[in-house]
Amino acid sequence: MDTHKKIGFLGPEGTFTEIATKTLFQEEERTPFATIRACLEAVENGEVDYGVVPLENTIEGSVNMTLDLLSQQVSLPIVGELVLPIRQHLLIHPDQSDWKRVKRVLSHPHAIAQCHIFLQKELPEAELSNAASTSAAAEYVQNEGNLEQAAIGNELAAEKYGLTIAKSNIHDTEDNDTRFLVLHRTPKALPRTPLFREDRVTYKIILPSDYPGALHQVLAAFAWRNLNLTKIESRPMKTGLGNYFFIIDVERPNRDILLKGVMEEIQALGIGISVLGEYPCFVVNGQN
């Protein structure tokens, strides 16, 4: 990667989005943004060169804000994707020697939900408090200096705020991954790295309201060409009840002529189709 490039990401610092950003852009200058919209707008206006935002979590599902902004409000192609395993840890103040004395645990609501079994079994009497992010929870524990408070967060937050990882990998399930998208002003895909897994294409499909069976026709255009759909999701058009568009992720084949044929067939049916990105997918293998 070009170390002179500027990378924006959904902040604050010390979150999994920053870990994803550091994984793909190790040496580049990184800037956190308070919201997904602010991050993507910074890419659009040239304040940063790339933006990294979350798209989907195994447990919590899709990040609708990202989907809606990309498909309806900003014109930024997807140029890369990273799948990152989510590993939650119990973080305590470095002066606390016994984590079982903790009486209050803070974190983002999603992180607390992902560690429900551990909390019920090991800290059943602890008060659970929501924070704006896992990083904000870690910062609070560090600043307050209350030894009976702990945070749930990642190793980057522990390092940034000088906390001790008292218990590692306290999440309920190992199958907890988050997909992060990389956006750029031009459709030039990121270069492949050792983390490369496969190439993908993401389409936006708008179905005519007066076309019964239109979605079946769309899926058939992919199916008879043996193209593998990795995801299909509907989102409201926000133009009236019952009006939806679809986001479809497809494994990109070696022969682009197949994708060209899909576009031509669907367009010939009077169905709206556009490409949101053709990009490499990178995967970080989970490690305990």
UniProtKB/TrEMBL annotation:
Catalyses: prephenate + H(+) = 3-phenylpyruvate + CO2 + H2O
Which ranges carry the Prephenate dehydratase domain? 6-185
In this chain the ACT domain maps to 203-280
GO BP annotation list:
L-phenylalanine biosynthetic process
- GO CC entries: cytoplasm
Q: Which PANTHER family match?
A: PREPHENATE DEHYDRATASE P PROTEIN, PREPHENATE DEHYDRATASE-RELATED
Q: What is this protein called?
A: Prephenate dehydratase
Provide the organism lineage as a comma list.
Answer: Bacteria, Bacillati, Bacillota, Bacilli, Bacillales
